[in-house]
Design goal:
Blueprint: H1 3-8, H2 13-19, E1 26-28, H3 42-51, E2 59-60, E3 75-80, E4 83-89, H4 91-99, E5 105-108, H5 115-128, E6 130-139, E7 155-162, E8 164-172, H6 181-184, E9 195-202, E10 206-209, E11 213-219, E12 224-233, H7 236-250, H8 268-280, H9 283-295, E13 304-308, H10 313-316
Parallel strand pairs: 2-13
Antiparallel strand pairs: 1-10, 3-4, 5-6, 5-13, 6-12, 7-10, 7-12, 8-9, 8-11
The structure holds fe (ii) ion.
Length: 320
């Protein structure tokens, strides 16, 4: 059984591409809590957090999300004169933040901490013909805020590893949107969107959301650990952006500033641009751009704590 068939079991990869991929959400409820243990067990998760004690294995990248904590609150810091150096993650403080302050923890690119998970993600990237990465979300019980209602700019494949999580899934915000929320004037108000499904995702379950489907995720009465595999599909617009970049490096006219007066008159520039596209826009050129995008390695980052969210910064100040 291929990696993708295993992830989607009992749906086949063929049916997935025909009926769900970039079209519809897919929910698979398996009555097998340990389905994902071979890829990421609780022991592996402990190992990942232990790795954080040494920053040569792990990074802390402070997110700018609302409510994200200052990373000094959970880091070991060595001070040399007026220079502070972070040397690792304080596992005890992380556990306090998680259990006492109910702060969700996000470990991005966690696949780079575990060889077997990295192999799994690499195989999925091939099967989905995209750039995949895995983020781990550890969320305490009764967290009702988290990231709030939103949509993602990549497809998400959710593996619920432990506990459960409530997913409220709404209609898609347009067809496969590829710009940030503010670009579209997205309102973080769940009453504005048509709800499709409310589901408690249990350990062993799987959920696929195509890019753009609005969702809100909360925990119930249990701690939840889930893996979100994000997959960046190579779109036609990506290929054309790359194509434009390559043309601009070869044809001076494309790098020149556009003068607004040009639009009032017929101009030689437009004729030259038309000629360039007529001769250069070929399937072979686009195939080459697609190949270049495919070879670009986006998975080289070390695992890092993207953010530890908390209900308020004043809560966090009590953990010292
Ligand atoms: Fe999301």
């Amino acid at each position: 059984m291929s990696t993708l068939d295993w992830l989607l079991n009992p749906i086949t990869a063929k049916d997935f591409f025909e009926q769900f991929f970039e079209q519809n959400p897919l929910l698979i409820q398996r009555d097998q809590m340990d389905y994902y243990d071979s890829i990421l067990s609780i022991k592996d998760i402990e190992h990942v957090i232990d790795l954080g004690k040494n920053l040569s294995n792990f990074d802390i990248n402070q997110s700018t999300s609302d409510g994200a904590l200052d990373d000094n609150l959970y880091s070991f810091v060595v001070q040399e004169h007026n220079i502070k150096i972070k040397t690792g993650i304080d596992k005890i403080k992380i556990k306090q933040l998680l259990h006492k302050q109910k702060c969700p923890i996000v470990i991005s690119h966690v696949h780079n901490a575990l060889p077997k998970l990295k192999e799994f993600i690499d195989q999925l990237s091939i099967a989905l013909d995209g750039n995949c990465y895995a983020d781990m979300f550890i969320t305490p019980p009764l967290v009702s805020k988290g990231f709030g209602i939103h949509f993602d700019l990549n497809d998400v494949y959710v593996m619920q590893l432990y506990g459960n999580k409530r997913w409220e899934i709404y209609e898609s915000f347009g067809y496969l949107p590829d710009q940030p929320h503010f670009y579209y004037g997205f309102k973080r108000d769940d009453s504005k969107y048509r709800k499709l499904l409310s589901i408690d995702l249990e350990a062993g379950n799987f959920l696929y959301l195509p890019r753009g489907f609005i969702h809100n995720v909360t925990t119930r009465n249990k701690l939840s650990i889930h893996l979100t595999i994000g997959c960046l599909n190579r779109k036609w617009s990506d290929v054309l952006t790359r194509f434009n970049g390559e043309l601009a490096s070869r044809f001076d006219v494309l790098g020149q500033k556009v003068s607004t007066t040009i639009f009032n008159n017929s101009c030689n520039d437009l004729q030259e641009i038309r000629r360039i596209f007529e001769t250069e826009l070929t399937m072979k050129a686009l195939e080459s751009c697609h190949k270049n995008l495919k070879e670009r390695n986006s998975g080289a980052d070390r695992p890092h704590i993207t953010s530890i969210l908390c209900s308020s910064k004043s809560d966090a100040a009590t953990i010292k």
